[in-house]
Amino acid sequence: SELIAKQLPAPGFPHGGRGQTLFSLADFSGGHAGALFNPYAFLALDIDRNQHWLQQQRQFRSTVLRGLRRLSFKALNDKLRRQALIPFLAMANGINGTLVVFAIAKEMGGVFQTGQRDDATSELLTAWKPGVHEHLMRIVHLGALIGGLTSSPGQDLYWIADQDEIASNEAQLRALTNLVARVLNNVLPHDLRHLRVGTTWSDDGSLALEDLTAISDLAAGAACEAVTEIVRQGTFPVRGVVTRLPATLTRKTELLLTWLAQRDQPLRRMLFVIDSGGNPTGIRLTSLGLPTLPNILQRA
After folding, report:
1. What is the longest distance spanned by two Cα atoms in the chain?
2. pLDDT per residue over 159-191, tens digit each?
3. To 5 degrees, how large is the angle CA 237–CA 275–CA 267?
């Protein structure tokens, strides 16, 4: 919490004038079978202070990416999606918000211990199979952390996730809403007005929710591939040392990392790695800085 807050100084979101409705959109589908990390990405923005993006998004959908095609990291092999990527990222630059990506090492196993849950939380978790619980708790706790850091008193929070396995039916969605509310109550320094939890199925037909969630998806996929290759090559950054990115990265990841490195745009971007740090029982949080020069990475 403190490390993320240090990277959110004024001016810029979440400081200054705020809107009534905060959107927090999560995606965690950027991993692949051979990846060493699971990615979790969260995009937070006041939707009523980003009307310019909504206007651009409607034009983008009518002129660049027609129909129901969705941009995603895994689908960038499609020619039309590749052609749409650059204008899509340029459009995302103008969002007055914050994008936070976490890459959690698979070798860590479970972070949330079953015995540490209270009875009410354990009851809510019965809506999901046990194998999903760790994944679900990571999403909820990290999402609540971002919500606590980016919301303001009296706001309405719309918490949107894009994964059927955590909200595949009405019962799971109700349980997810209650679970998010419980965790938020423990981390929020202020009161919200309303909390709504949903999925991209709540989209109004404009595909705005799909496109906002796609920003998280693209960032999660690129971060997962990049950090996996860095660890495989034994070049994990150390403080004060600039490290060249692996030559094995795909072109789409190189492009997305260049976009994630931009610091002169309204949309703030952060990348964190959570691993054991070589200690089987430890947890290390590393903030990775992406300089705007190509092909280098450094520990912030």
Report:
1. 53
2. 998 766 788 888 999 999 999 999 999 999 899
3. 70
